[in-house]
Amino acid sequence: MKSARLVSLATVVLLLLGWEAVSELEWLSPMFLPSPSRVLHQFVVLSRDGYAGATLWEHAGTSLLRILCGFAVAASAAIPIGLLMGTNRWIKGALDPVIEFYWPLPPLAYLPLMIIWIGIDEAAKVTLLGMAMFAPICLAAQAGVRSVPIERIHAAQSLGASRRQLFFYILLPSALPEIMTGIRISIGTGWATLVAAELIAATEGIGFMIMSAANFLATDIVFAGIITIAVCALASAAAARWAERLLVPWKGKS
After folding, report:
1. Angstrom distance (rounded) from CA 88 to CA 97
2. Residue 19 lies inside a defined structural domain of this protein
3. How many other C-beta atoms can be found within 10 angstroms of the C-beta atom of residue 199?
4. 52 or 190, which is more confident?
5. pLDDT for 68-90, tens place per residue?
6. Is the dihedral of CA 112, 115, 120, 124 positive or negative?
7. Could you report the per-residue pLDDT of 142-151, keeping only the tens digit for each?
8. pTM here?
């Protein structure tokens, strides 16, 4: 494990050195590929002076709030629906085609519908993020229920477990590892959808900052925004893994 981390660290360092060398030797114009040092300088400038009326941290905070709201909407609907789909074949038959149809669609495909149906305020952005994060959680919850060994269910029933006890003590705990995996995937999907969501008349947010800077060919600001999204996504994934270890300590031990 330690050697793998050292290799990963060495790879990152070599990539940064190569990037810096390409920029310093002017093999590519700084407008197309600014150097890492220039991007780092832009981080300092954005943190201190801001961009479009907000600092980098304010843009990041706005985007994080949208992600959290979208996740709350998605999880609160996807988990119960996924569990119902896993336990009832009629509900699965009714909802599965709808989810399978829209899930592969890129968010930009139904972005115009969000604007037409909901408008251009925060609700449209949160709805778009929620829709992007809904399917992975829902399908994971469904798969978790359907993967429960039938012997475990029969054993609980033979001991006199009611339907409520069967759900809360057998089905839900058994499905929880799959649900947590779906949550981790959905968080990554949410950050990947962020730029599309912040195309909807946004005046603040990392996605807005990236698109606005791109219009002015401010490539260093674009790189700073991309790196910020990547760092936020990695931090979110780490938080999800910590929550998974806390809620599902038995995962991988049976």
Report:
1. 15
2. no
3. 18
4. 190
5. 999 999 999 999 999 888 888 89
6. negative
7. 988 888 777 7
8. 0.85
Is 6 among the domain residues? no
Q: Report yes or no: 196 and 115 within 8 Å, Cβ to Cβ.
A: no
DSSP for 36-63, please give it: HHHHHHHHHHHHHT-BTTB-HHHHHHHH
For residues 9 and 5, give the distance between their C-alpha atoms in angstroms, rounded to a whole number. 6
Look up the CATH number of the domain holding residue 113.
1.10.3720.10
Amino acid at 130: G
* The two three-digit tokens of residue 40, written as one number: 């780092």
CA distance 20 to 118: 45
Look at residue 20 and tell me whether its pLDDT is greater than 70: yes
- Alpha helix segments (H runs only) across 26-149: 36-48, 56-87, 89-102, 107-118, 122-146
Residue 2 in any domain: the answer is: no
Cβ-based neighbour number of residue 134 at 10 Å: 24
What pLDDT does residue 145 have? 87
CB-count exposure of residue 71 (10 Å: 0-12, 13-18, 19+): buried
Cβ atoms of 33 and 90 within 8 Å: the answer is no
- Structural tokens at position 26: 């002017």
Query: CA Rg, the chain, in Å?
Result: 22
